[in-house]
Design brief:
mainly alpha, two-stranded antiparallel sheet, 2% strand, globular
């Protein structure tokens, strides 16, 4: 069942990545503002659920929940900064590779996760596939996008968030652990409230921008709804399976992303368009094949 959760979750998150890029580029939304609206509403959901679930039993576990939530919030902010400066189809897979490698290291040391040689090979192949998907070609040289350093620290932050969440899932039933870690994401959003850019986002916009604002709001609402469902499914997969394996499967998300971008760029360029050179298409096709073999190694 965890495999199904992961597959559907990563498909939804691939769609979210496209919406993120559209909102951040065309709607000129600052990364800190987008991070605020991506996290603050979780505080409301957390408050609503806290009265209906049993609380965590120790101060240490609450500290772990806070680390999980805040590292996720910082990961979002830094990811949005990375995507704001580059192309989602190249930077997001690189973040996925960083998440896979970092998760493997932390989970092996802290959680004591053990893997067969076949699974380690599969995880390595999936990380390699994500790295291949992050490459692009410009001026006859393969290079990484701008925003690389933001992508690296974002990937590390997401890995910390997922491993700490897995610790909670191993100690408590899914719902108390999930709510505690999500509630702290909302607290992170609350901490962003004093930011000047966030405060300015509350100001009434000129009448000439009302139509554009409504369009932006529709994209943001759809983005957040799909994001919530995607995150819940991925967290459910992490709770039931290995956090390292589920995170390694993020390469599948970027495979979905590559396919969706190709389709949209050809049939709906007005909605979303990115250019791929022939060598990029070849490299990313190879990465897709590696994803298939990597998945086969980790789930068989």
């Amino acid at each position: 069942m965890w495999l199904v959760y992961a597959l559907v979750g990563y498909l939804l998150l691939a769609i979210v990545l496209i919406l993120d890029k559209k909102i951040l580029s065309k709607e000129r939304t600052k990364p800190v503002v987008f991070a605020f609206y991506s996290t603050i509403f979780v505080l409301v959901l957390g408050c609503a659920w806290l009265g209906n679930v049993s609380l965590l039993s120790t101060t240490f576990d609450w500290l772990v929940a806070m680390i999980s939530g805040f590292s996720f919030g910082f990961g979002l902010w830094w990811m949005y900064k990375a995507v704001h400066e580059g192309e989602a189809s190249h930077l997001d897979p690189f973040i996925g590779a960083v998440i896979t490698i970092t998760t493997f290291a932390i989970a092996s040391i802290w959680l004591g996760e053990n893997f067969t040689r076949q699974q380690i090979l599969g995880i390595s192949i999936l990380a390699l596939a994500s790295l291949l998907l992050s490459l692009r070609r410009k001026h006859s040289h393969v290079r990484f996008e701008k925003g690389l350093w933001w992508a690296i620290i974002a990937g590390i932050a997401f890995a910390v968030s997922n491993v700490t969440a897995k610790y909670l899932y191993s100690m408590y039933p899914f719902m108390p652990a999930f709510v505690a870690s999500r509630f702290s994401i909302g607290l992170f959003g609350l901490c962003l409230l004093p930011n000047r850019a966030v405060l300015q986002s509350f100001k009434k916009r000129p009448a000439t921008k009302e139509k554009k604002s409504k369009g932006s709001l529709a994209y943001i609402v759809l983005d957040k709804i799909l994001g919530i469902f995607g995150v819940v499914l991925i967290q459910g997969a992490i709770a039931k399976g290995s956090v390292t394996v589920v995170n390694a499967m993020s390469g599948l998300q970027y495979g979905f992303l590559f396919f969706l971008i190709i389709v949209l760029s050809k049939f709906r360029p007005g909605l979303f368009k990115e250019y791929f050179s022939r060598i990029e298409i070849v490299i990313q096709t190879i990465a897709m094949v590696l994803i298939f073999f990597g998945l086969a190694f980790v789930v068989m």
